[in-house]
Amino acid sequence: MLRIILLFSSLVFTSFNWNTHETAPPLERYIDPIFESIEQRTTIYANKNNEVLRMDVYRPLSDTLSARPLLLYVHGGGFAGGSRDDKLTVSFAEQMTRRGFVVVSISYRLTMKNKSFSCDQARRNKIRTFQMAVEDIRSATNYLLDRKKELGIDPSRVCLAGSSAGAEAVLHAAYWQDRDLLDSAPHLQEGFQYAGVISMAGAIVDKELITSDNAIPMAFFHGTCDNLVPYGTAPHHYCEEGEPGYMTLHGSYALAEHLREMGKSYYLFSHCGGNHGWASYPMEGMVPEIATFLKEQIVEGQFQQLHYLYHDSSPCERVEGLPFCK
Are 72 and 104 in contact (CB under 8 A)? Predict the structure, then answer.
């Protein structure tokens, strides 16, 4: 795979010293896995209509910091399946925790279980599914904030992350207001705002929900040939107009361009020719990139507009509209 780095608005220069006799640089918190031992525990954070919702909390042991950034992860699975503790998620959570983050992976209500979430599912039901997932994310967030001292969490550095359906959920959790949700939705604590979002093959119903006043740093990972969640602006699952599930969504490229035009920070990882597999690949193959985003944009507050480009040997026709993929 060929990797090309495109930099917008923020230029980064790195100098290298090729003297191999010099001492290696010290390990760096948030970038390197500096903690050998971690703690993982499972707890119930909510009970909704007799459905028990659990979360797995990962913390580095022997850590002297009392307030650490929190990465709150929401799994994928089309709102019908998936698990907070599958092998990939556990490995990802452990890798990030060893770098000094508190990581939480949650279960949430799978309202599309045994149902279609494609073009035959009514748009209103899709929206309700998003809304209920956001409710659960808010409940989990409030639970964690209530225990911030016990868990060693910095409430000003809570970053959402999600894959596929989970990415759709966290994008809406970050930008939907109370008026966009059901009456049953819990309110977030007064003055709280998420510090950032990591979206792996996700999209949102309206990019105008993101404004110059509420935009937060965002990292996007997406294949340009994703046939389920659009990379740009297109119908969900590429449904035809007139089908019950027809619903326009704005994916990673559309959102990154929106942030670029507003002068806001983002990372965009585009895989020319890549498919929906980029909903999970970053958790296995791009942990250092995720850690760098969190350190530079969430912890340090750097302003960056970065586009990292990857190429695949089997492009689809949608690539033709993207000059950087030719």
Answer: yes
Q: Which domains does the chain have, with CATH numbers?
A: 3-9+29-325 (3.40.50.1820)
Backbone angles phi, psi at 311, to 5 degrees: -115, 145
For 146-171, how does the pLDDT look when each residue is reduced to its tens digit (9 = 90+)?
999 999 999 999 999 999 999 999 99
Going from the C-alpha of 46 to that of each of 135, 144, 183, 243, 280, the distances in angstroms are 11, 11, 17, 35, 26
* Phi, psi torsion values for 297, nearest 5 degrees: -95, -30
Token output for 224: 């340009």
Chain segment 289-304, per-residue pLDDT in tens? 999 999 999 999 999 9
* Length of the chain as a residue count: 326
CA distances from 313 to 222, 273, 276 (A): 16, 7, 16
Q: pTM of the entire structure? A: 0.92
| Cβ 106 vs Cβ 166: under 8 Å | no
Burial class (CB in 10 A: 0-12, 13-18, 19+), 252: buried
State the number of CA atoms in the 13 A half-sphere of 106 facing the CB.
31
Is residue 279 a contact partner of residue 164, using CB atoms and an 8 Å limit? yes
Q: DSSP of 141-188, one letter per residue? A: HHHHHHTHHHHTEEEEEEEEEEETHHHHHHHHHHH--GGGS-TTPPPP
Nearest to 162 by CA among 117, 193, 130: 130
302 Ramachandran zone, left/alpha/beta (phi>0; psi -120 to 50): beta
List strands edge to edge, sheet with 203-204.
203-204, 248-251, 233-235
- Pick from 96, 69, 47: nearest CA to 157: 69
**pLDDT tens-digit series, residues 244-281:** 999 999 999 999 999 999 999 999 999 999 999 999 99
Which residues are paired to 178 by β-bridges?
A: none
Which of 217, 294, 293, 267 has its CA nearest to residue 5? 267
